[in-house]
Write a structure and sequence with these properties.
Blueprint lengths: L3 H8 L5 H13 L3 H5 L3
């Protein structure tokens, strides 16, 4: 999580600090969602 934050920041421009937060938040919440919906 901490390693991905700095990497996204470097790839994205400093003008879009919100986009960096949104990117890591999506992938992190996506993996846990599919597995939880698969069993039920």
């Amino acid at each position: 999580m901490v390693g991905k934050n700095p990497r996204d920041f470097s790839t994205y421009p400093p003008c879009n600090p919100r986009k960096s937060d949104s990117k890591p938040a999506l992938p992190v919440a996506l993996p846990p969602f599919p597995p939880v919906r698969s069993p039920p």
